[in-house]
């Protein structure tokens, strides 16, 4: 099963969601990308994922155009509808789903305050994607 997770910069939310989905089931082919990829994965995202035993330090932002020729069972957008326009994937897709989260990269304040926002979003991503996996994928592989 092929799954593509999209956001704008592919530096935080989609990277965390990709990593969690890979830990849920090794049979899944999970990718993430952005419409305007950042230069690198956000260091706070790397740090909070390491706290839960997942290493994304070698991940890098990818452009959605790199995946246009592939077919996907699911394309999942993770942008926050209130603040951002969700990217659109024009390739072959069986199911389009939106599971939105605030962008932790917008967090401001002290280092502790920023990391707190990243932890909150990380935990929301883990919970919502686990629910998605259990409801839509687990018994269909």
Q: What is the count of β-strands? A: 4
H/E element sequence: EHEHEEH
Q: Can you give the mean pLDDT?
A: 92
Number of helical regions = 3
Percent helix range: 25-40%
- Based on secondary structure, the structural category is alpha/beta
* Morphology call: globular
Question: Oligomerization state of this entry?
Answer: single chain
Span between termini: 8 Å
* Uncertain stretches of 5 or more adjacent residues: none
Percent of residues in beta strands = 15-25%
- Strand order across the largest sheet: 2-1-3-4
Largest sheet: 4 strands, parallel
Could you tell me the radius of gyration in angstroms? Answer: 14 Å
Structural write-up:
- This protein is an alpha/beta fold.
- The protein has helices spanning 13-24, 43-51, 111-136; strands at residues 2-7, 29-34, 71-77, 92-98.
- The chain has a four-stranded parallel sheet with strand order 2-1-3-4, covered by helices on one side.
- Helix 1 (13-24) links the parallel strand 1 (2-7) and strand 2.
- The longest helix is centred in the C-terminal third of the chain and has 26 residues, at 111-136.
- It is globular.
What brief labels describe this structure?
18% strand; 141 residues; globular; 4 strands; alpha/beta
Fold topology:
Elements: E1 2-7, H1 13-24, E2 29-34, H2 43-51, E3 71-77, E4 92-98, H3 111-136
Parallel strand pairs: 1-2, 1-3, 3-4
Helix pairs in contact: 1-3, 2-3
């Amino acid at each position: 099963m092929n799954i593509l997770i999209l956001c704008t910069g592919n530096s935080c939310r989609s990277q965390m969601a990709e990593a969690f989905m890979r830990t849920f089931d090794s049979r899944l082919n999970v990718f993430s990308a952005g419409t305007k990829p950042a230069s690198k994965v956000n260091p706070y995202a790397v740090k909070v994922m390491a706290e839960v035993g997942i290493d994304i330090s070698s991940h890098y932002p990818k452009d959605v155009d790199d995946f246009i020729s592939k077919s996907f069972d699911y394309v999942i957008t993770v942008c926050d509808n209130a603040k951002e326009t969700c990217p659109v994937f024009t390739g072959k897709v069986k199911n389009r789903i939106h599971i939105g989260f605030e962008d932790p990269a917008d967090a401001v304040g002290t280092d502790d305050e920023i990391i707190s926002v990243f932890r909150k979003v990380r935990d929301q991503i883990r919970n919502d994607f686990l629910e998605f996996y259990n409801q839509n994928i687990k018994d269909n592989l």
